[in-house]
Design a protein that fits this description.
Helices cover 46% and strands 5% of the residues. It has helices spanning 15-24, 29-36, 40-48, 55-65; strands at 4-5, 53-54. The longest helix has 11 residues, at 55-65.
Length: 82
């Protein structure tokens, strides 16, 4: 699939971080879905860590949440070097 981020150690989406950012901005999953154009089911799967994600989807979520770089949603690799 084109533009799918593989679930490798350095590219795992941090679902808890996504959820915390969404909640800190007082958005429900439904509201974030409306703002971003990403389905509620996709947001749920990402927050639960059960789904791969296209870069375009991450970009939409980051834009809706005011995140300048969607890479902030990745789990940081141990050792600090990516």
């Amino acid at each position: 699939m084109k533009n799918v981020i593989p679930l490798q150690q350095s590219n795992i989406i941090d679902g808890l971080k996504l959820q915390n950012i969404r909640r800190s901005q007082k958005y429900t999953q439904e509201e974030l879905s409306e703002l971003s154009g990403v389905s509620v089911n996709s947001i749920k799967r990402l927050e639960q860590g059960t789904s791969d994600c296209k870069i375009s989807t991450l970009t939409k979520l980051a834009n809706a949440l005011g995140i300048s770089d969607f890479k902030e949603l990745f789990v940081k690799k141990e050792g600090g070097h990516e």
